[in-house]
Amino acid sequence: MTNSKTQKIIKDNRGEEVVMIRVDKEINNIISACQTNKLKWGRWDVKYWHPKYEKNLIKINDSPWPKKSFYEILEMNDVIQGSKGVSEYKKSGIQYLTIENIIFTGFDYTYKPKFVEPNGPMDVQGSRPKYGYVVLVRTGATIGKVLVVTEKSPNYTVTSVAYKLKFKNNINPFYICIFLKSSFGQLQLHQLKNGTGVENLNLDSEVPLIIVPMISRLVQKNIESGYKKMSQFHDKAIEARKEGDELEYKKNIEIAEKMLKDLISKTEAVIRGERDDII
Fold this sequence. Notes:
CATH superfamily: DNA methylase specificity domains
CATH architecture: Alpha-Beta Complex
């Protein structure tokens, strides 16, 4: 049980939260947060009001950097949601990447490869991601999986349960990817997800609410460099797995994971104002 004068959270014998009581929020607070406009919408569900999410937003607001919402930095008209066709896999064609192909450090093209007809119902025109697009899983238990497309000319299509997000020219997508992987981003994603049974992140009413501290462009560029260096080891790992060399795969993927975790940690420190840069 977690107690304070204003909040109480009760857990069962498995450690899962079963009851949350808050007396620090008056009905006027709730109603205000449920007003519908471009950046607010109705949230009466209990999980949204969990104290850990509020603490996360307080930390973001305490960051010394100016803040912007996704509504301000996302090119909404250029978001790729992907095809909504049925699973019509072929023996050859263009590779179709599913959630299972999205791992911590990037795409794993070797895992259960699937192919679909080029420009067919599973590869509709404009559904393929491009360099610099942020791929974000939007539904199900894996909400929050995220990566950025590093290939200059990617030749694959990606499942429709992941958004392919394009940001305005002055926003570095590599920084956005690292931010979404950070505790600041992950907690927001899990606060904003909605639905019963299968949860989802809605492009129109939830994704635009994500708040991002706008760290300096120089630091964003250094984060991009760090991500691309990490990706070199990821690519070596995937190539090794493709050739059946699991030892080489394991060696390189562990290096990539360590580099990425370090990059995330340093970025979080910059956001908090504890570091000037990630290098």
